[in-house]
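Retry 2 of 3 after timeout on previous attempt. Resubmitting structure tokens to design endpoint.
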């Protein structure tokens, strides 16, 4: 049954308790740092910048005393899709990259498929971006409780409430969606094994299992969505039983306060992001 455990390595949304400096930071500071690093990841196009960002991300994971192997394993479920997109980008984008990048030599060509230096660079940079984004999101959710994320997002959106933005409702929706990621992954594995035990030919072995099993996924998606709707209904009933009426007029038991390490972390992230973006055209 190990071949059916495709969501065992989903690390996003699972909090790992700890006493590290990263764990003790204010959730607003951690969200700000991650957003700044995501901006650097998104707009950087050089190998050097992405190597520095990857090293910084791995350093933050080590600083948080989180198992690096566990965090990296969260990329495994997305590997087939990432490789498929990378191959499409490598072979199909060759002509566009050759015309966009001056001096982009053609490395290989067969019919309409073409690999150029520009498409190879774009593919490697895109793979680095995906890896860094997955690691940053995993780091944020693994080192921050879901309730703290809710308080942090709500506090950051609260100034926009005067413009009619429902800060509390938006933060609650995002937190619930994040918390449901591992729950739905576990439910998907349960449905997969239940269907296989009843004789369904749903073996998902191999890297290209999503191509071979595309027509058979209907028997998995229907009960998965049905279970998700049932869980959502139970959640609604539980919130109504507790007299939940939205964020208007609600008091807050938890008071967030920024301290010295929080300001230092945000300042360092801002300086690093500004340096990477300023030198993105000069770095190789």
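Retry 2 succeeded. Sequence:
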């Amino acid at each position: 049954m190990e071949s059916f455990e495709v969501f065992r390595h989903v690390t996003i949304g699972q909090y790992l308790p700890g006493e590290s400096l990263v764990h003790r930071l204010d959730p607003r500071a951690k969200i700000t740092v991650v957003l700044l690093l995501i901006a650097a990841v998104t707009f950087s196009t050089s190998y050097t910048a992405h190597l520095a960002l990857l090293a910084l991300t791995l350093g933050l994971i080590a600083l948080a005393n989180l198992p690096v192997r566990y965090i990296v394993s969260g990329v495994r479920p997305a590997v087939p899709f990432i490789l498929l997109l990378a191959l499409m980008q490598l072979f199909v984008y060759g002509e566009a990259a050759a015309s966009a990048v001056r001096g982009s030599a053609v490395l290989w060509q067969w019919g309409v498929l073409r690999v150029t230096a520009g498409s190879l660079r774009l593919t490697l940079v895109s793979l680095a971006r995906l890896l860094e984004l997955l690691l940053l999101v995993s780091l944020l959710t693994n080192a921050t409780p879901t309730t703290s994320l809710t308080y942090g997002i709500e506090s950051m959106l609260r100034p926009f409430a005067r413009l009619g933005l429902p800060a509390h409702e938006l933060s609650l929706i995002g937190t619930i969606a994040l918390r449901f990621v591992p729950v739905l992954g576990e439910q998907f594995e349960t449905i997969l094994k239940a269907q296989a035990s009843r004789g369904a030919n749903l073996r998902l072995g191999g890297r290209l299992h999503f191509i071979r099993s595309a027509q058979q996924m209907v028997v998995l998606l229907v009960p998965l969505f049905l279970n998700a709707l049932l869980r959502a209904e139970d959640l609604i009933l539980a919130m109504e039983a507790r007299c939940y009426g939205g964020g208007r007029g609600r008091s807050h038991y938890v008071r967030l306060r920024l301290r010295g390490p929080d300001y230092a972390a945000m300042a360092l992230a801002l300086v690093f992001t500004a340096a990477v973006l300023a030198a993105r055209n000069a770095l190789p």
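Attempt log closed. The longest helix spans residues 167-197.
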